[in-house]
Amino acid sequence: MILAAGFGTRLFPLTIDRTKPALPFLGKPLVGYVAEYLAEFGFREIVVNLHHQPDSVIAALGDGSQFGVEIGYSIEQPAILGTSGALDHARHLLGDDTFLVINGKLITDIDLAAAIETHRSSGAIATMVLKPNVARERFTEVFTTEGRITGFGGMPSLQASGKSNEPPYMFTGIQILEPRVFDYIPRGVYSDIVPTFYRPAIDAGEIISAHITDGRWFELSTMKRYLEISMAMFDGGGTAIGRRSEIAEPNSVNDSVLWDDVIIEPGAKLERTIIGDGVVIRSGQKFYDSAIVRADMVRNCKEIPEKAEPGEFIGDLYVVPLR
């Protein structure tokens, strides 16, 4: 199951007309990478949950055949259901065998076969795939003892404390679950999986296995991370150019991401900038560390999300600094 129901508010205005998993990423929708990744490990039947702008994900994935999978959709309406509620809503599609759940906003090469082997050999009801949080980013700490998950903390401090200099563990958004998890999940209500399933299961003495990985893992949760991860895929820098986009000469376009139907006129300058569909950058305009969409898209949207980074209108552009 791919979780793709979120709002993507921190990626506004890139998510005006699509949800986060449907964002283009180096030539294909982000969620398409996730589908192909699952297909590499032999998964063929995929369930995708949807809520916000569901048509954007359906348009990106279709029936899944172009990504080597078969996709069924679980549409959550009128309200989004949370991670645990999403499983409940799709339980008739997940069947009665072991299943894997993954966030639809990831780029990774984590070895799922190894994670599944950890799960099978442990006899666990669930296995969470964890990574050392070396940079101590703002991800909830996960506590483990002898290969089992024992609890969850808050956000890690920026510096190591106590006797150990080992980085804390963070959850990658990949988990392997047995059908028995549904014994803990209530029917028809909004709920998240840690308080609904994991904490009660740990308290009940269930085996929750920890699979620790050092695989590459990126989560596209903000516009700055979106650009940084795009550059990482270019081994440090480069420019991604979408379909039917044109860059006139002379110009200076560096370390940027251009979506479809973008026009860069002569004498424009871009560095570390994301350019949305249909944007025209005029001669002489210069932008750095920004995300830019057409101003009419923002003027015509119903409301700007509360968590969105502030931007400004510059002519026919809406420009948001990458913070």
Question: Overview of this structure, please?
Answer:
The chain has 323 residues and is α/β, with parallel strands linked by helices. It has two domains: 218 residues, Alpha-Beta Complex (Spore Coat Polysaccharide Biosynthesis Protein SpsA, Chain A); 99 residues. It contains eight helices and 23 strands. The strands form five sheets. Strands 1, 4, 5, 6, 8, 9, 10, 11 and 12 form a nine-stranded mixed beta sheet that branches. Strands 14, 16, 17, 19, 21, 22 and 23 form a seven-stranded mixed beta sheet that branches. Strands 15-18-20 form a three-stranded parallel beta sheet, with no helix packed on it. α3 packs across α6. The longest helix is centred in the first third of the chain and has 11 residues. The chain starts with a strand and ends with a strand. 41% of the residues are buried. The mean pLDDT is 94.
Q: Please provide the count of β strands.
A: 23
Q: What is the first-to-last residue Cα distance?
A: 32 Å
Report the C-alpha radius of gyration, rounded.
21 Å
Please name the fourth-level CATH homologous superfamily of the largest domain.
Spore Coat Polysaccharide Biosynthesis Protein SpsA, Chain A
* Largest beta-sheet characterization: 9 strands, mixed
Write the CATH architecture name of the largest domain. Alpha-Beta Complex
For this structure, what is the CATH class of the largest domain?
Alpha Beta
Query: What helical percentage do the residues reach?
Result: 10-25%
Structural class: alpha/beta
Low-confidence stretches: none
Count up the domains.
2
Global morphology: globular
Strand content: 25-35%
The number of helical runs is: 8
Mean pLDDT: 94
Briefly note the CATH topology name of the largest domain. Answer: Spore Coat Polysaccharide Biosynthesis Protein SpsA, Chain A
